[in-house]
């Protein structure tokens, strides 16, 4: 049983011209034969390179209501069409009494661009970005039914298995899935552009390159009036990318569905404001799924306080991820392991007593402890040398940097062997 993803292209002149069909063939019963392979769905004006809707051309500029109006209404038309294909599920009243059945949303509450369908052993997931779509499912007949319904509503072009989506290249094999932005990185190297444009493009590159996340975080603080030393530092990042533009993330096929989290902070690292930097890394088994580098909004008066604020931010991310995984049918009943290298912060999390030294971080204390008592997370100490989130909070030496890159799951499939 494999995933089924299909790609589509919608000509720009046909978006919204056809009214959505009021009905469609429902997905087949679970008795249908599962799909043996992976195919992909993407919808966009260019069937080869998916992109969001662009402004109307000069030929339609004389009638802004007709051209630009339909362009703005197309995303809503797509959402209405998907809602009609995926009928909302229903549930009986929670008190067990007889009464009306209450409709449940057929889109994820964690991400409203994710549409879900489940009936028995058959499932379909549709992810929408403006006029680009990705379809995933475990039944080829159900996928074909959805594609036929969507093709009746819009003029689409099948792009076959998912290989390229919004600048992200996907390569699937028996060992797992490899995601990279090699073409996007090469485009940056061929034309870097002004400083602001360069940093913005590097920020998008961090989707599959967490190794440059901290460097981009530092450079993005000087967008207002960059100096020559900031430009030289940005060129160092380009030099690093040029050595291995094809590096990306590898998601193993046999990865367990257990969430592991590493959070860290660099206390008072900003020389101007003395605010600390928060960094965390979340993996689903051996597959990286979320990471972040962000300066804390307030000044921490101790390293323990900075670490604890980092734990609070990470816990918020875990709460959202658990809800998102539930939308995909992944029930995470075991506590999520949160690793921290600061013993004082771990003691604050496990100690239910507040005192004057921790009163100013009481809100963060209450939230983290609430999640601990609920059994959603469990804390553990990790040695600083094994702290994966270190790469998101500070500059590291060459040996430690490459060691943590390997821990992040960063691979280069195009490297000579």
Walk me through this protein's architecture.
The protein is of the alpha+beta class and 417 residues long. It folds into 3 domains: 7-166, no CATH class; 180-243, no CATH class; 255-404, Nucleotidyltransferase, domain 5 (2-Layer Sandwich), CATH 3.30.420.10. It is built from 10 helices and 17 strands. It has helices spanning 64-85, 140-153, 182-190, 195-205, 213-219, 228-243, 303-327, 343-350, 362-373, 398-408, and strands at 7-8, 89-91, 102-104, 114-119, 122-129, 132-137, 158-160, 164-165, 168-173, 176-180, 248-252, 259-266, 277-284, 287-295, 336-340, 377-381, 410-411. Helix 7 crosses helix 8. Residues 1-73 and 90-105 have low confidence and may be disordered.
Q: In percent terms, what proportion of residues is strand?
A: 15-25%
Q: Mean pLDDT, as a whole number? A: 75
Helix coverage percent of residues?
25-40%
* Poorly predicted runs: 1-73, 90-105
What number of structural domains do the residues give? 3
Q: Categorize the overall geometry.
A: globular
Count of runs of 4 or more consecutive helical residues: 10
Cα-atom Rg, whole angstroms? 24 Å
Helix and strand content put the structural class at alpha+beta
According to DSSP, the number of beta strands is: 17
* H/E element order: EHEEEEEHEEEEHHHHEEEEHEHHEHE
| Span between termini | 33 Å
Question: Largest beta sheet: what is the strand line-up?
Answer: 8-9-10-11-17
Q: Give a short account of the largest sheet.
A: 5 strands, antiparallel
């Amino acid at each position: 049983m494999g995933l089924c993803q299909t790609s589509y292209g919608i000509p720009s002149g046909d978006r919204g011209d056809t009214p959505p069909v009021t009905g469609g063939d429902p997905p087949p019963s679970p008795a249908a034969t599962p799909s043996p392979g992976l195919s992909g769905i993407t919808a966009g004006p260019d069937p080869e390179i998916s992109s969001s809707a662009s402004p109307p051309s000069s030929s339609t500029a004389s009638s802004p209501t007709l051209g630009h109006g339909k362009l703005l209404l197309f995303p809503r038309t797509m959402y209405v069409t998907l809602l009609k294909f995926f009928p909302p599920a229903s549930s009986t009243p929670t008190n067990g009494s007889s009464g009306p059945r209450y409709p449940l949303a057929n889109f994820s509450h964690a991400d409203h661009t994710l549409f879900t369908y489940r009936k028995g052993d058959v499932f379909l997931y549709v992810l929408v970005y403006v006029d680009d779509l990705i379809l995933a499912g475990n039944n080829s007949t159900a996928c074909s039914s959805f594609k036929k319904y969507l093709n009746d509503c819009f003029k689409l072009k099948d792009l076959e298995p998912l290989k390229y989506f919004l600048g992200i290249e996907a390569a699937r094999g028996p060992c797992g899935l490899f995601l990279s932005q090699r073409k996007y990185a090469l485009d940056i190297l061929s034309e870097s552009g002004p400083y602001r444009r360069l940093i913005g493009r590097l920020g998008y590159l961090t989707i599959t390159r967490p190794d440059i996340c901290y460097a981009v975080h530092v450079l993005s603080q000087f967008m207002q009036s960059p100096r020559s030393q900031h430009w030289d530092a940005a060129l160092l990042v380009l030099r690093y990318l040029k050595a291995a533009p094809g590096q990306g993330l590898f998601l193993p096929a046999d990865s367990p569905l257990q969430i592991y989290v590493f959070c860290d902070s660099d206390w008072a690292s900003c020389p101007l404001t003395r605010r600390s930097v928060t960094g965390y890394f979340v993996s689903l088994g051996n597959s990286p799924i979320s990471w972040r580098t962000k300066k804390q909004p307030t000044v921490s008066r101790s390293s323990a306080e900075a670490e604890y604020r980092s734990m609070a931010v990470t816990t918020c991310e875990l709460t959202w991820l658990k809800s998102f995984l539930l939308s995909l049918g992944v029930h995470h009943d075991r506590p999520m392991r949160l690793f921290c290298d600061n013993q004082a912060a771990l003691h604050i999390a496990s100690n239910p007593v507040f005192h004057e030294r921790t009163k100013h971080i009481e809100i963060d204390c209450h939230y983290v402890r609430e999640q601990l008592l609920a059994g959603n997370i469990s804390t553990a100490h990790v040695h600083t040398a094994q702290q994966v989130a270190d790469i998101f909070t500070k500059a590291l030496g060459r040996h430690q940097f490459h060691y943590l890159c390997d821990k992040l799951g960063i691979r280069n499939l195009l490297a000579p062997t």
